[in-house]
Design goal:
The chain is an alpha/beta fold. It folds into 2 domains: about 5-35 and about 300-425, Aspartate Aminotransferase, domain 1 (Alpha-Beta Complex), CATH 3.90.1150.10; about 40-290, Aspartate Aminotransferase, domain 2 (3-Layer(aba) Sandwich). About 40% of the residues lie in helices and about 15% in strands. Helix 2 (about 40-50) packs antiparallel against helix 10 (about 285-315) and helix 4 (about 85-95) packs across helix 8 (about 225-235). It is flat and about 80 Å long. It starts with a helix and ends with a helix. The model has no long low-confidence stretch (mean pLDDT about 95).
């Protein structure tokens, strides 16, 4: 296509998005718990990538990895096709032997814990704090054994863990740390972005998350060996793990390493396999979309924080009925959502408030899997459990969340607060 054709396409897409805007009607328009925020810029970037004729991972992915690392302040970034794949690759890259243990919270998302189970690593389940929804770092010692080699911590709903204490504990016992930051892009602890403390950080770019590529994920690390191992496992297990592949950037390029640096004599390095790997790469058009989302990320972070603060300020009036979320003194959360837990002495149950909100077009969700021990798929999994997991059980029966995403307007937040007030008023009369 000519430059003129591209300009016309861009203008057409811009006009389409100008016409898409809809008026919010309280009680009629759904207030989603999460929503991808994008415009003609992302669509144009994706189409431009498609029209280039190269669908696989390439120059857009390479540029995204560079810019994402720069944003977070890490040395290396590897794009994947999902946050779940990022978690799998993170565990895989450490090459831990079967039978070792990994400390992780019982309140979790399936693909935070699944890679441990899939790789024969025994999960050691800790309870969570009822207000932060994360583990208490002071209780890590209770979970430790000589078999523990890894800590896997999700920053639940964007709320940072106590990373200084976690890293001190990990250093003392010579443990790896994986930070699952899939819900926490933009969150900081002690002035540093989460995912930059541990050995590996993982992210998701699913539409519900802080930025999106439709699907997609990323691994970040400051360890070159880990980054290269991740690339090998992501790309079928092959020996070719250059951070920037000349052939991916230009299919017609000549690579001098293809036949000179290979474990097999006189064999193509791109078809030499040194690991039992997967194919967990994204499309380049997703990375093109992601580059446009990165430009909007500071706005997304600011709006999420503002929306959370507005809801917290107003919903604090109902603290007699709900446990409100809390963060640690050094934490600066960029919240994924606004969690609430119905108090034990409340005159209603979670189902009552959730039904009330849903019928009024305010979407809710439970806190992911809740206590993973209670889920049907995990009944025969070999766990080591620390304590009684009472708070995790409480999350399972009484916690839910509503949205704080950047597409929320003042009118939507006012309607949400008014709906909570209408519900609670019934129990005050």
């Amino acid at each position: 296509m000519s430059e003129r054709d591209y300009k016309e396409l861009f203008q057409i897409l811009e006009n389409i998005f100008k016409e898409k805007k809809e008026e919010f009607v309280p009680g009629k328009t759904t207030i989603h718990y999460a929503l991808a925020v994008y415009d003609h810029q992302e669509i144009f970037a994706a189409l431009k990538s498609l029209l280039s004729g190269w669908f696989g991972i390439g120059r857009y992915a390479s540029e995204f990895e560079k810019q994402f690392s720069n944003f977070l302040g890490t040395k290396y970034c590897v794009l994947t096709n999902s946050g779940s794949s990022a978690n799998l690759l993170a565990v895989e890259s450490l090459q831990l032997p079967k039978g070792v243990e990994a400390i992780t919270p019982a309140t979790t998302f399936p693909t935070t814990i699944n890679p441990l189970i899939q790789k024969g690593i025994k999960p050691v389940l800790m309870d969570i704090n009822p207000s932060t929804y994360n583990v208490n770092a002071s209780e890590l010692e209770e979970a430790y054994s000589e078999k523990v080699k890894l800590i896997v911590l999700p920053h639940t709903l964007g709320n940072p863990n106590e990373m200084d204490s976690v890293m001190d504990f990990a250093e003392e016992h010579d443990l790896y740390v994986i930070e699952d930051s899939c819900d926490a892009l933009g969150s900081k602890y002690d002035g540093k972005y989460v995912s930059t403390f541990g050995d590996i950080g993982t992210f998701s770019f699913y539409p519900a998350h802080h930025m999106t590529m439709g699907e997609g994920g990323a691994i970040v690390t400051n360890n070159e060996e880990i980054s290269l191992t991740v690339r090998s496992f992501r790309d079928w297990g092959r020996a070719c793990v250059c951070p920037i592949c000349k052939i991916a950037l230009d299919p017609n390029a000549y690579c001098p390493l293809r036949f000179s640096q290979t474990p097999l004599p006189d064999y193509d390095r791109r078809f030499t396999y040194i690991n039992i790997g997967y194919n967990l790469k994204p499309l380049d058009l997703q990375a093109a979309m992601g580059l446009e989302q990165l430009k909007k990320l500071p706005f997304f972070i600011r709006k999420r924080k503002e929306n959370f603060e507005k809801l917290y300020r107003e919903l604090s009036a109902f603290e007699d009925y709900f446990i409100l979320p809390k963060s640690l003194p050094k934490a600066e959360p960029c919240w994924f959502a606004f969690p609430l837990t119905v108090r034990e002495n409340a005159p209603f149950k979670r189902r009552d408030i959730v039904d009330f909100l849903e019928k009024r077009k305010i979407a809710t969700r439970p806190l992911f899997a809740g206590n993973i021990l209670r889920q049907p798929a995990y009944q025969n999994v070999d766990f080591r459990v620390v304590g009684k997991l009472e708070n995790s059980d409480r999350v399972m029966t009484s916690s839910f969340f509503v949205g704080v995403h950047p597409a929320l307007t003042e009118d939507m937040i006012t309607y949400m607060v008014n709906t909570f007030e209408e519900f609670v008023r019934k129990f005050k009369e």
